[in-house]
Amino acid sequence: MDLRKLLENVKCGSTNIDDALDSLKNLPYEDIGYANIDHHRQIRNGYPEVIYCEGKSDEHILGIIGKMVEKKSNILGTRCRIETFEKIKNIYPNCEYEELSKILKIRNNEIHNNGKGKIVVVSGGTSDIPVADEAYYTAKFLGNDVERVYDVGVAGIHRLLNKIHILQRARVVIVVAGMEGALPSVVGGLVDVPVIAVPTSVGYGANFGGLSALLTMLNSCASGISVVNIDNGFGAGYLASTINKLD
């Protein structure tokens, strides 16, 4: 909800007080039994609530979307099953889906690019792309200029060095890697901007489902690196967007 526009409409008389109160009655949240939908979040944080679809029934996801559509919110869903998307698409034809990253998008308002610079998403290998794409589409949906540099892991470091000009033009770099997770340390030593490291669960047995990559990133000797949870591309994209919009 654009609260400023609502108040301006009341001030100029195009919206009466009763209608304005009706619009505000479900702020700051709406209790629908199985969910408390935080309609106030965009006013507080600048972004609407994001739907984490994994573990939710299709009916609950549709119910949450319905209430958010009533408020004309833009909707981002993560970890969405393709079967769920197909049901949603039948009801909301403007729904979009990114199959690799399992990202669901519904645009009810124009998304303006209000970032201060470019976010670059880097992946170690092709197997890391689903997580990298989750970061990419999250940051893009939140109104940022985002570029991808994929499959440039440390096993062939010349591939990364060939893209150094792209990295050095970024305002924030997201680095997604599995296996031993060394790539963020290398990138951190090449750029002068924040690096957000994302460990993935890609790797053989001793990778421990991403734990070895996580520990490598947490123990990085390069400065300026923050680390999000294993496979949390969404968290990295959201954090990068927040940094990119700071003055």
Automatic annotation (TrEMBL):
Annotated organism of origin: Romboutsia ilealis
Origin: domain of life: Bacteria
SMART domains according to UniProt: AIRC (SM01001)
GO biological process, one term: 'de novo' IMP biosynthetic process
Stored Pfam families: AIRC
Domain (PurE): residue spans on this chain: 117-246
Name of protein: NCAIR mutase (PurE)-related proteins
GO molecular function: hydrolase activity
Lineage start: Bacteria, Bacillati, Bacillota, Clostridia, Peptostreptococcales
